[in-house]
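Supplementary Methods, section 5.1.

A reviewer requested that the exact input to the structure prediction be made available. We therefore reproduce it here, unchanged from the version used in the analyses.
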Amino acid sequence: MVAEGRQRIDKWLFFARAVKSRSLAARLVSAGRVRINRDKASQASDCVKCGDVLTITLDRRILVWKVLATGERRGPALEARRLYEDLSPAPAPPAAGLSPALAPLREAGSGRPTKKQRREMDRLHGKD
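The structure derived from this sequence is encoded token-by-token as follows.
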């Protein structure tokens, strides 16, 4: 049986809403993408307790969370945020001068022709 004040890592990740399902949490741990106090978690049955620091490597970000409490259920996001303190480093600043939301502009007439331009070229070449 699990000691008082401890919880399986896969359950805790699921309750804290780090992943969408408990089976995904187990796969994340098995893949070696979760560390408990700088040591790799080897199994989904490894336990966490209050005060442990988890380093979770997800697809596009790294989360560093300090465990504040064990969960009772997978509740709403506000309830899940009470389970941990976020110690993650600030995201890197975007590249100089480029906004990720804006696509680079190109000059008019460069690149592939539009459908209208293609029809005009076909008419010019007599491929009606």
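Residues 6-86 form a domain with the Structural Genomics Hypothetical 15.5 Kd Protein In mrcA-pckA Intergenic Region; Chain A fold (CATH 3.10.290.10). These observations are discussed further in the main text.
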